[in-house]
C-alpha cells in the first residue's frame, strides 16, 4: 500500500513537472512556428478597457478579412494591472506585438528602445498626420520620431445636473460662464441640510486642477520638460480655485470625497456640477439616473480658453517578429474605417478627424460637441520621461493642500522643488 | 509540518523493524531517498521562490533602478536616502502600533471564542463556520464592505451611532483614527484562522485534567488559568509568531481601505513598511529604494522572531 502511494506521488510529481515545462516551452514555440512558415502570422494586441473590447474585436475581424494571413489575438488586462504587467513583459523581452499606450508612459518606453519608431512607415505609406489633433501627434513624438498613431482622445467638460438647477431655479451653465460665475452658482446651489453641494472639488489633475492651471496661464511642466511650473503664482492661483470652493463649503471636503467618489455623488444627485472627461459620457448614458438628468457644457473661462487633452495611441513593440504586419494593423486601427467602428460603439472619441460626429450621434441626449470643440484649443497632458515619479508626489502634496494640512503655496512650492530635482535626474 | 512528520515516523519504523540489519541499512538509504523526493517540491519551491528572491532583494537594495530591469550599483545610497525619509519613521511607527495592538488583542479574542466554541452547544458547527468565514473571504471584498460600513456620511456604523445621538468620526479619512479603524478590521478577519488553531489545541488537552480539578473543587475560571492556558501555550506561541510576521507585513487592508489614488488625507499618516515598499516599488518605479525598505523589514522580523524563539523557554509548556 505504502509503495503504491509513493509511486503515485512520484508520478504526480513528474506530471506536475512535465506540465510546467510544457507550459513554458509552448509559448515561444507558437511564435517561432508562424515565423518559420512565413504564411500565417499571429499578432498579439494588448489593451485595458473592457468597454472597448467589442469595437476592438470588430476591428481585428475587419482587418483579418483583408489580410487573411494575419490573426489578431486580443489580450485584455484590467487597467490597474496593465502597466505592472507591461513593465514586467518589457523587462523580460516579451511585450505584445501591438499595444495601447498613454502619455505618461510614452517617453519612458520610447527612450528605453521598447517601441518601434514608425516615422519612415508613415512617410512611405503617405499617411497624413493632419488627420489627428496636433496635440496628440506631438504627445507621441519623441526625439523627432513618431511612435504611435493616435487612437482616441479625451477632453474635459463641465457636467451638470439639470434637475438640481431646475429645483433651485438657476439657469444652466453655458459658454458665457467664467470662474466667478461658477463659484457664485456653486454656493447658491449648495444646500447643507439636503446634503447637496454645488460642485465637487476632488484633488484630481486631468479632470481638475490641470485645467484651471492652464486656463490661468500657469503650467505643470515646462515645454523642454526640464522645470516644474508649480512655483509660478499663476499655477498656485489655478490650484486655489479648487481649495476656495472647499473652504467656502460649495464642495464636499477632500476627506468626504475620498470616502465617496465625486462621480458616485454626482450619479446619486448630491452634486450639481463637476469637471469630468468625455470618457464618462457612455457611463452616464447607461446610468438610469443620469441618463436624462445631466448634460455637459464648456468649462468656465479663465484668463485663457483652454483645457487639457489626452489620448491613447497604438504602438508596436521594438522586438516584434513581424514589424511589417504589425504596422499594417496599426495603420488600419488609425484609419478612418477603424475610427468609425470605435465611434459607433460610443466608448471613446476616435482620434481621426471627421469621425467624431458618429461618436456624438451615439449619445444624442448630451451636448457632446463641446468635447470636440475643446480639442481644438486644448493643451497636451503634461508628461516627462518618468512621469510616474513626480505624479505620485503631486497626488501626495495636493491631497495635503486640499485637506488643509498644508497651505496651497507651501505644497505647490515643495512640489516644484522636488519635481525639479527629479527632472534634473531624468 | 511538524504534526505531519510525527505521524509518519511510527509507520516508517514499523515497516523497517522486521528486516535484518543489512537490509535495514539499505532500506534506510531508500527511505532517505523517498523522504527527500517527497520534500523536494517544497524545498525547491522554497529555494526558488523564497531564498533566491531574498538574496536578489538584498543585492538590489544596493542599486539604483532605471526601469525595465536596468540597474546600476549605488552602494549605500538607498539606505542613506531611507534614513532621511520622513515616511520611513511614519511607517515604522505605524507598523509597530499596528503590531502591538493587533497581535495581542487578536490572540486574546481568538482564545476567548475558541473556548466558547469548544463547548457542547447546539449548532456549534454553524458558529464555527461563521467565525471562520472572514478567513476565506478575499481581502478586497472585506475591505470594500468595511469601506462602506465606515463611510462617515452614508455608512452603517455612523448611522447607528447617529441614531443614539453620537456623531461618528471619519473612520478612514481622519489621519488620527484611520490606523485604528484598519486594526479593528484586521483583528476581526484574523479571529477565524487563530480560532481554528486554538480549537485544535484545546481538543488536545486531556479531559481527565479537568475531571481531577473538578474533584479538587476548582471553578471554571481557575481551571482556565491553571489548565487550559498553560497547555495552550504551544498554540499561542505558534499563532503569535505567525501573526506577528503577518502584522509586520500588513498591506492589503490598508491599501484597499484607504486607497492610494483617491486623495485620502489619512493615507500618508497611516502608511506601513509594506505600504512604503509597494508605493516606491510599483507606483514610482523606484525598485532599489523599495528593496532597501524590504531589507529593513526583513531585519526587523528576524530580530523579533529570534527574541520570541529565545523567550519561548520561559513560558511555553510542551507536555
Automatic annotation (TrEMBL), chain A:
Source domain of life: Bacteria
Annotated keywords: Signal, Transport
Gene Ontology MF annotations: maltose binding
Matching InterPro entries: SBP (IPR006059)
Signal peptide from the UniProt entry: 1-17
Pfam families attached to this UniProt entry: SBP_bac_1
Example of a GO cellular component annotation carried by this entry: ATP-binding cassette (ABC) transporter complex, substrate-binding subunit-containing
GO annotation terms (biological process): maltodextrin transmembrane transport; maltose transport
Sequence similarity: Belongs to the bacterial solute-binding protein 1 family.
Listed name of the protein: Probable ABC transporter substrate binding protein
Organismal lineage: Bacteria, Bacillati, Bacillota, Bacilli, Bacillales
UniProtKB/TrEMBL annotation, chain B:
Key words of the record: Cell membrane, Membrane, Transmembrane, Transmembrane helix, Transport
GO cellular component: plasma membrane
Main location: membrane
Entry-linked CDD domains: TM_PBP2
Spans through the membrane: 32-52, 96-117, 129-149, 177-200, 231-258, 287-307
Signal peptide: none
Keyword check for Transmembrane: yes
SUPFAM superfamilies in the record: MalF N-terminal region-like, MetI-like
Domain of life: Bacteria
Example of a GO biological process term: transmembrane transport
ABC transmembrane type-1 domain boundaries: 92-308
Membrane protein topology class: Multi-pass membrane protein
Pfam families: BPD_transp_1 (PF00528)
InterPro entries noted in UniProt: ABC_transporter_permease, MetI-like, MetI-like_sf
Subcellular location: Cell membrane
Alphabetical list of PANTHER family matching this protein: ABC TRANSPORTER PERMEASE PROTEIN, INNER MEMBRANE ABC TRANSPORTER PERMEASE PROTEIN YCJO
Family per record: Belongs to the binding-protein-dependent transport system permease family.
Name of the featured protein: Probable ABC transporter permease protein
Amino acid at each position: 500500500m505504502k509503495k503504491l502511494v509513493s509511486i503515485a506521488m512520484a508520478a504526480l510529481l513528474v506530471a506536475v513537472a512535465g506540465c510546467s515545462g510544457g507550459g513554458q516551452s509552448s509559448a515561444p514555440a507558437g511564435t517561432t512556428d508562424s515565423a518559420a512558415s512565413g504564411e500565417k502570422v499571429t499578432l498579439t494586441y494588448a489593451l485595458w478597457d473592457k468597454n472597448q473590447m467589442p469595437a476592438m474585436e470588430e476591428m481585428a475581424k475587419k482587418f483579418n478579412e483583408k489580410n487573411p494571413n494575419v490573426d489578431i489575438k486580443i489580450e485584455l488586462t484590467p487597467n490597474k494591472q496593465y502597466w505592472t504587467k507591461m513593465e514586467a513583459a518589457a523587462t523580460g523581452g516579451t511585450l505584445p506585438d501591438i499595444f495601447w499606450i498613454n502619455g505618461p508612459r510614452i517617453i519612458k518606453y520610447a527612450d528605453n528602445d521598447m517601441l518601434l519608431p514608425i516615422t519612415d512607415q508613415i512617410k512611405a505609406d503617405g499617411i497624413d498626420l493632419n488627420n489627428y489633433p496636433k496635440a496628440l501627434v506631438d504627445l507621441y513624438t519623441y526625439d523627432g520620431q513618431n511612435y504611435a498613431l493616435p487612437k482616441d482622445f479625451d477632453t474635459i467638460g463641465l457636467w451638470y445636473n439639470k434637475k438640481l438647477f431646475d429645483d433651485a431655479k438657476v439657469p444652466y451653465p453655458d459658454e458665457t460662464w467664467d470662474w466667478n460665475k461658477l463659484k457664485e452658482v456653486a454656493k447658491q446651489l449648495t444646500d447643507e441640510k439636503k446634503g447637496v453641494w454645488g460642485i465637487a472639488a476632488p484633488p484630481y489633475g486631468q479632470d481638475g486642477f490641470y485645467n484651471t492651471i492652464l486656463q490661468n496661464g500657469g503650467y505643470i511642466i515646462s515645454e523642454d520638460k526640464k522645470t516644474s511650473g508649480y512655483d509660478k503664482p499663476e499655477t498656485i492661483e489655478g490650484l486655489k480655485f479648487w481649495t476656495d470652493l472647499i473652504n467656502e463649503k460649495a464642495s464636499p471636503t477632500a476627506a468626504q470625497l475620498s470616502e465617496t467618489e465625486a462621480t458616485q455623488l454626482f450619479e446619486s444627485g448630491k452634486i450639481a456640477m463637476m469637471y469630468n472627461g468625455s470618457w464618462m459620457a457612455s457611463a452616464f448614458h447607461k446610468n438610469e439616473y443620469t441618463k436624462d438628468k445631466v448634460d455637459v457644457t464648456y468649462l468656465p473661462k479663465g484668463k485663457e480658453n483652454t483645457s487639457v487633452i489626452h489620448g491613447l495611441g497604438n504602438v508596436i513593440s521594438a522586438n516584434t517578429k513581424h514589424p511589417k504586419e504589425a504596422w499594417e494593423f496599426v495603420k488600419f486601427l488609425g484609419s478612418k474605417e477603424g475610427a468609425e467602428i470605435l465611434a459607433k460603439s460610443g466608448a471613446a472619441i476616435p482620434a481621426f478627424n471627421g469621425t467624431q460626429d458618429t461618436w456624438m450621434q451615439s449619445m444624442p441626449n448630451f451636448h457632446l460637441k463641446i468635447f470636440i470643440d475643446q480639442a481644438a484649443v486644448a493643451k497636451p497632458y503634461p508628461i516627462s520621461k518618468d512621469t510616474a515619479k513626480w505624479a505620485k508626489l503631486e497626488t501626495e502634496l495636493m491631497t495635503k493642500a486640499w485637506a488643509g494640512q498644508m497651505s496651497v503655496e507651501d505644497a505647490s512650492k515643495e512640489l516644484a522643488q522636488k519635481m525639479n530635482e527629479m527632472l534634473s535626474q531624468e | 509540518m511538524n504534526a505531519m512528520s510525527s505521524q509518519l515516523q511510527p509507520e516508517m519504523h514499523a515497516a523497517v523493524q522486521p528486516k535484518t540489519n543489512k537490509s535495514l541499512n539499505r532500506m534506510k538509504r531508500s527511505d532517505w531517498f523517498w523522504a527527500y523526493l517527497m520534500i523536494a517540491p517544497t524545498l525547491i519551491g522554497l529555494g526558488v521562490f523564497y531564498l533566491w528572491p531574498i538574496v536578489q532583494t538584498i543585492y538590489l537594495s544596493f542599486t539604483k533602478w532605471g526601469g525595465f530591469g536596468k540597474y546600476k550599483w549605488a552602494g549605500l545610497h538607498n539606505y542613506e536616502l531611507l534614513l532621511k525619509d520622513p515616511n520611513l519613521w511614519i511607517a515604522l511607527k505605524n507598523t509597530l502600533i499596528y503590531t502591538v495592538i493587533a497581535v495581542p488583542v487578536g490572540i486574546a479574542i481568538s482564545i476567548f471564542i475558541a473556548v466558547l466554541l469548544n463547548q457542547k452547544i447546539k449548532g456549534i458547527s454553524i458558529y464555527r463556520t461563521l467565525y471562520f468565514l472572514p478567513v476565506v473571504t478575499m481581502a478586497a471584498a472585506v475591505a470594500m464592505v468595511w469601506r462602506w460600513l465606515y463611510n462617515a456620511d452614508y455608512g452603517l456604523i455612523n448611522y447607528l451611532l447617529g441614531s443614539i445621538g453620537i456623531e461618528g468620526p471619519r473612520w478612514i479619512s481622519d489621519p488620527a483614527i484611520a490606523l485604528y479603524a484598519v486594526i479593528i478590521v484586521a483583528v476581526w478577519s484574523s479571529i477565524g484562522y487563530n480560532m481554528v488553531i486554538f480549537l485544535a489545541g484545546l481538543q488536545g488537552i486531556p479531559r481527565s485534567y479537568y475531571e481531577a480539578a473538578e474533584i479538587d473543587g476548582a471553578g471554571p475560571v481557575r481551571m482556565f488559568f491553571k489548565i487550559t492556558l498553560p497547555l495552550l501555550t504551544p498554540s499561542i506561541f505558534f499563532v503569535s509568531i505567525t501573526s506577528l510576521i503577518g502584522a509586520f507585513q500588513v498591506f492589503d487592508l490598508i491599501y484597499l481601505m484607504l486607497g492610494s489614488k483617491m486623495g485620502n488625507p489619512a493615507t500618508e499618516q497611516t502608511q506601513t513598511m509594506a505600504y512604503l515598499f509597494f508605493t516606491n516599488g510599483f507606483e514610482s518605479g523606484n525598485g532599489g529604494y523599495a528593496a532597501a525598505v524590504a531589507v529593513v523589514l526583513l531585519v526587523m522580523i528576524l530580530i523579533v522572531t529570534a527574541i520570541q524563539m529565545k523567550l519561548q523557554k520561559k513560558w511555553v509548556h510542551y507536555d
